[in-house]
Amino acid sequence: MSSDEKITIRTARESDAPALLAIYTPYVENTAITFEYDVPSIEEFTSRIHHTLEKYPYLVAEKNSQILGYAYASPFHERAAYDWAVETSIYVDQNCKHMGIGRLLHDALEQTLKAQGILNMNACIAYTPSADAHLDNNSVEFHSHMGYRLVGEFYQCGYKFDTWYNMVWMEKQIGEHHKKQPAPIAFKEFHK
Fold first, then answer.
1. What is the mean pLDDT of the chain?
2. pTM of the model
3. Domain holding 89: CATH number?
4. Alpha-carbon span 95 to 111, nearest angstrom
5. Is there a domain that residue 192 lies in?
6. Which residues form the N-acetyltransferase domain (predicted)?
């Protein structure tokens, strides 16, 4: 890819599922970045995209029609009182790391969530006291750089590759919290 080609961010389509699953698969098979053990089927992954887009953004980074990464938001928790908070996820093609794609995706995700009326972005991140072949804590560093703060750590709560991993929650507040807070706008309404 030549350097003069621009990376663009767009809304994911269900037809992107094979390309997105190809990016996600090495994270499942080779890392503790996700605690998922089994690679989802293409049908399951397509369903996840569809379900997410009902309420939240699901974005892809693309260059010269090649998908390089993706980001999406999901409910922080299902109860109505949590409607202004989301959990965020970002995955970048492992051959395209350190090219600024994660930042582009995060910035676009944050702008979209802010426009929807979301106030808190939360990230649930696998964490290890000492880096190993499956986890290096780069995600914590990335989120710190994006303005998140550490709000909690759970110890030895995730088990993968015969290793116990910790999990941290990080949070970034992106809007003002008011006594009479308007309800957030669902992405499918916002994105019409």
1. 95
2. 0.95
3. 3.40.630.30
4. 26
5. no
6. 7-175
